[in-house]
Every structure is written in structure tokens, then in C-alpha cells.
Amino acid sequence: MDDKRITLRIPVDIHARLVEQASADRRSLNSEILYLLETALGGAGGDADPPGARIGFP
């Protein structure tokens, strides 16, 4: 796979949440972000949940 480097600006609180989740999942921050993006885009082994499904929206 060819990789593309990007600079991403995100709020400090979101960064902290990503770091915490990556640590809990025993992944690097980069791997966690890739996992979340693939899941959101439906590329991690199937269809992604509809928006809001994981946080309880109808």
C-alpha cells in the first residue's frame, strides 16, 4: 500500500480521546485513526454502522 502523509489539525480534546482509545485498544495513534476511518467508511470488513448508531441516536 502506498501511503500519503497529511498534516491534520484537530482540537486538543479530540486528540486526547483518540490517544486514550488507541492506548485502550493497544494500537498506535496512527493505527487507531486508520481503523476508525476504515470503519466509518465501511472498509473494515463490512458496512459501517449508520451515523449516530454507536451513540444511541434513533
TrEMBL record:
GO terms for biological process: regulation of DNA-templated transcription. GO terms for molecular function: DNA binding. This is Arc family DNA-binding protein. Residues 3-41 form the Arc-like DNA binding domain. The keyword DNA-binding applies. It holds the Pfam family Arc. The keyword ATP-binding does not apply. Keywords: DNA-binding. It comes from Actinomadura bangladeshensis.
